[in-house]
Amino acid sequence: MIVRNEPLIELAEKLKTELHETIVKPTAIVEIKSDKEVIHGWRAEYAAPASILSEYEYSKEDSFILDFGDHQVGYLSVTIRPAGSPPDAPLKLKLTIGEMPVEMAEPFENYDGWLSSSWLQEETIFVDVLPAVIKLPRRYSFRYVKFEVIDTSPKYRVVFENIECRAVTSANNKNVQTRAHKDDLLQKMDEISIKTLADCMQDVFEDGPKRDRRLWLGDLRLQALANYETFKNYDLVKRCLYLFAGVPDVKGRVAANIFVAPTLMADDTYLFDYSLFFVSTLHDYYYSTSDLEALKDLWPTAYRQIELALERLDDHHIVKDSTDWWSFIDWQEGLNKQTPSQAVLIYSLKQAIRLGKELNAPETDRLEECLPEIIEATKKYLWDETLQFFISGGDCQVSWASQIWMVLAGILTKEENQNLITRLIKENPEVGIATPYMYHHLVEALIVSGEKELAISEMKAYWGGMIQDGADTFWELYNPQNKEFSPYGSHLINSYCHAWSCTPTYLIRKYHL
Ligand code: RAM
């Protein structure tokens, strides 16, 4: 059950930001070619400038693919004019809208993943009266659009004109400080990160404008960090924090994600780490803005997340493990979440203590008492002296995520952290990293342990790999060893403009890489 906090919700609604609109026209007509050398096996090849489109007449079974030149989030419109005899039957037109060439090439009917196929972007339109201006009602996230004329009639054809996208974002480019980096790849990564972030910045910080199009706490935390270094839209972060705080459950738990339409609703998914990231996001927001009012309003929610997380500790002060979807951490298959979650708790507990002190909140004392006990227990029960790694779960799993999060939790000395993180890279334990989200944490862990050069080379290899594979915006999933990877059973449903992948700009700008 959700307990709505109307005053907080009202404040969130007052912070609704306006969307900036830009009209974008397609740049080219392309053909999608099979190519084993490229990601997913499909490449877009330039065929003609988009401007020649209106010179052609299309009839039954004709098709073409438009390239908008870059990733877009917005509303499509097109003027369709008949040619030949008066149109004696409706026009049946199919549109397929995609972020990647593969979405233009592989039929959506073949999709067999476990997320709803309704995320795949397509429309079948019947037009009774021609000429017509068709304005598609849904917002799309795309670079390519395939037009397939399913049928006209033997007596008439159609011409397509004025195809455009009204692109929308709540990001204001004017606020971004231009930064000419000496290193071309870092420069490019910075630019693509900013574009990724902008396309996810809508009425709230969305995780992905194609899928899931909603506000997730784990994504918000990273978007907010990137936003402070670029667009500086503080109100949007504030709005999102108030939205989360507005719909806790009876226990005071903050949901892992929320919907804003038709009205504000918390999803019935709760994740240990994501709830704690409410604290972390508030912490980062406060130290970027000094907004004491917001801190006062939101502190009770933040403190409650810590209290609830502490309730999950066993008698030894270790987070209880379980096999259900209780903590996210990463999409890595087989990953045990216990130790990384323990680290996330320590990480956010420290932030909560800092915030509590700002407010002179008496409950901070309790948190200060807990912290050393938890750290001591972590070293006693989760550190394996022989392996020289943190272990997790009943099977004593050694994963990348455990080591990375423990470095970020800051329970070892800088030197010990440095040894741990370099040992991690050298020994490369099997349970690795599946998402840019976890890669972000690897890079940050390297930086905080003094391994800046290594951080840069990891970042270049990973996000640079995406660029080489054709990214206009950074992808939700990327595994350089298995480029078809999707935790959802099909790469068609992956999001190719994803919030949690936008952090190179934060890492580059914040740490002066
Ligand atoms: C996926 C999305 C989202 C993420 C959750 C946990 O559904 O990628 O961004 O936060 O997983």
Q: Summary?
A:
By secondary structure, the protein is an alpha+beta fold. The chain contains 14 helices and 14 strands. Strands 1, 2, 3, 4, 5, 6, 7, 8 and 9 form a nine-stranded antiparallel β-sheet that branches.
Ligands, deduplicated: alpha-L-rhamnopyranose
Instruction: Give the integer mean of the pLDDT values.
Output: 97
**What is the gyration radius calculated from CA atoms?**
25 Å
- Helix-strand pattern: HEEEEEHEEEEHEHHEEHHHHEEHHHHH
- The assigned CATH architecture of the largest domain is Alpha/alpha barrel
How many angstroms does the end-to-end distance come to?
46 Å
- Please tell me the total number of domains: 2
**Which CATH class of the largest domain applies here?**
Mainly Alpha
Set out the fold topology.
Blueprint: H1 6-14, E1 20-24, E2 28-34, E3 42-49, E4 63-84, E5 91-98, H2 101-105, E6 122-127, E7 132-135, E8 140-151, E9 156-169, H3 184-200, E10 215-216, H4 217-229, H5 234-246, E11 257-259, E12 265-266, H6 272-289, H7 292-311, H8 338-358, H9 364-382, E13 383-384, E14 389-390, H10 400-409, H11 414-427, H12 436-448, H13 452-468, H14 504-510
Antiparallel strand pairs: 1-9, 2-3, 2-4, 4-7, 4-8, 4-9, 5-6, 5-8, 10-11, 11-12, 13-14
Helix pairs in contact: 1-5, 3-13, 3-14, 4-5, 4-6, 4-14, 5-6, 6-7, 6-8, 7-8, 8-9, 8-10, 10-11, 10-12, 12-13
Bound molecules: alpha-L-rhamnopyranose.
Name the descriptors.
513 residues; alpha+beta; Jelly Rolls; Glycosyltransferase; 2 domains; 9-stranded antiparallel β-sheet; 3-stranded antiparallel β-sheet; globular; binds alpha-L-rhamnopyranose
